[in-house]
Backbone:
């Protein structure tokens, strides 16, 4: 039997010897697992090791290589110290340990918590471990969010990097001090704008002077700023200047909490409404004085009308250039609206540029939206109901079975506590023995109560989802009647759109829509 050993260093038990060495924790895991495999007479196929990765990270390189090799059946067994070293997500436990591994004829074994897929009797234990690990991730995420929110309210800077124009105070954690070199550029940007120079013109001016943009400035000063280096990434752009001119950090106010994570399982962030941002005044020395700041804000307010009627474009900040990845800007020619690459004119040869009519893009999006809607609505109703109800019934049955099991175990714990109490009253056991023996039962009872509560919530969510099916269909039917898009509809349905340069031969413009559903 060939065995694949998997090791992972969790963040809570880091103990680095040096940057070049594996952590001591990884070495201990390897020794333990190798010894176990040798005793079982298993042939070690490979040792997969992820150092400095959390159990919720699905992008672990060694982990993903192991899954790839498992699918190719290069080994027969996956061996770990604990199930949580493999993953802390219940979804991954079910997908691989209980789902794909049996299909691939792969056995999963973890030593410390005695998980073994060859033993069908401990499947529930593996699932409970997965659920407890899932709770651990959620609780840890909530605790971290709570700490960070408290720091933000106290005006402490918690970002990985200081805003351009500032640097982190080496003598006071969470405090910003002025970076003299970059702050001169910030002052120049504000001054030029106050003198009537436009944002695009300021970007071109800075590029022509060879001044590196904030991203490139970080790299040049040795900061580990992870972003692909391209010709465009070193240039100033319209939006970099625009964002700078309205950032209150430059007048000494700490403004944070502009984005929040979608969930503890995802690294993606979503924008937070401005009224919910955390704003603390006077936390650090300002770069821009209030007179210049107020002048600039008044000028921006007067210019902040993209269209003559004051409305926001339907694709505002939603369309990216397929070539350089930057947001395309709105422009007008002969009473028609167009979107063009914002980087095209930043400097010579910055980008080959993308260009499209707003009406053409609107027609394309409407066409694609109607295709997707019709595809769903035209699906045989019986087929949808059968598939949904099968899954619904299966989920409800599994949850109800688990609920009965946990309720039975909780009842056994309660009876055990009562029995111990009677034994104490009869003098069969001492007070100390009663306290010691009942402690574990109370702990188990509390665990089962939490499990029952969690499963009850899952049942309620499934029922709610079933009730929402009708309203979802009604919402989709509305899209079939759409003749024009609005900014709200685009924002609701679309994450972003990529537009490429027109093909000179076919005259077609490449368009890719990234839907939110």
Residues:
């Amino acid at each position: 039997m060939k065995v694949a050993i998997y090791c992972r260093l969790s963040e809570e038990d880091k103990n680095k010897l040096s940057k070049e060495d594996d952590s001591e924790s990884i070495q201990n895991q390897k020794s333990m697992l190798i010894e176990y495999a040798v005793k079982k007479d298993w042939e070690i196929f490979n040792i997969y090791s992820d150092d400095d990765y959390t159990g919720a990270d699905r992008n672990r390189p060694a982990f993903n290589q192991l899954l790839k090799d498992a699918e190719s059946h290069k080994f027969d067994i996956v061996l770990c110290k604990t199930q949580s070293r493999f993953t802390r997500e219940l979804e991954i436990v079910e997908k691989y340990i209980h789902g794909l591994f049996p299909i691939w004829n792969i056995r999963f074994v973890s030593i410390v918590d005695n998980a073994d897929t060859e033993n069908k009797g401990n499947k529930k234990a593996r699932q409970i471990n997965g659920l407890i690990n899932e709770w651990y991730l959620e609780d840890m995420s909530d605790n971290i969010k709570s700490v960070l929110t408290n720091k933000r309210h106290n005006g402490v800077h918690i970002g990985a990097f200081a805003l351009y124009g500032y640097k982190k105070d080496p003598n006071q954690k969470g405090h910003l001090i002025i970076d003299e070199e970059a702050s001169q550029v910030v002052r120049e940007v504000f001054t030029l704008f106050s003198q009537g120079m436009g944002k695009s013109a300021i970007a071109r001016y800075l590029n022509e002077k060879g001044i590196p943009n904030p991203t490139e400035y970080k790299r040049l000063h040795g900061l580990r700023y992870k972003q692909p280096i391209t010709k465009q990434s070193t240039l100033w752009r319209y939006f970099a200047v625009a964002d700078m001119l309205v950032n209150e950090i430059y007048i000494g106010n700490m403004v944070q909490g502009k984005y929040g994570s979608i969930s503890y399982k995802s690294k993606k962030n979503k924008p937070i409404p401005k009224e919910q941002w955390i704003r603390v005044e006077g936390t650090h020395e300002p770069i821009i004085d209030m007179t210049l700041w107020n002048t600039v804000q008044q000028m921006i307010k007067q210019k902040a009308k993209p269209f003559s009627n004051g409305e926001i474009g339907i694709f505002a900040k939603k369309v990216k250039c397929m070539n350089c990845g930057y947001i395309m800007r709105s422009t007008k020619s002969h009473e028609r609206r167009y979107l063009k690459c914002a980087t095209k004119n930043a400097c010579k040869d910055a980008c080959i540029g993308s260009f499209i009519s707003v009406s053409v893009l609107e027609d394309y999006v409407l066409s694609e939206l109607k295709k997707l809607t019709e595809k769903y609505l035209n699906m045989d109703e019986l087929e949808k109901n059968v598939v949904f109800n099968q899954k619904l019934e299966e989920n409800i049955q599994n949850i109800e079975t688990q609920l009965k099991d946990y309720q039975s175990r909780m009842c056994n714990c309660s009876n055990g506590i009562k029995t111990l109490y009677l034994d104490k009253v009869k003098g069969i056991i001492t007070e100390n023995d009663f306290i010691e023996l009942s402690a574990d039962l109370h702990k188990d009872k509390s665990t089962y109560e939490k499990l029952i509560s969690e499963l009850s919530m899952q049942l309620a969510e499934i029922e709610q989802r079933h009730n929402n099916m009708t309203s979802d269909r009604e919402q989709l039917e509305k899209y079939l009647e759409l003749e024009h898009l609005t900014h709200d509809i685009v924002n609701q349905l679309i994450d972003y759109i990529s537009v490429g340069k027109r093909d000179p031969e076919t005259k077609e413009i490449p368009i890719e829509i990234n839907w939110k559903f």
Observations:
- Residues 261 and 269 are 4 Å apart (CA to CA).
- The first strand starts at residue 2 and ends at 8.
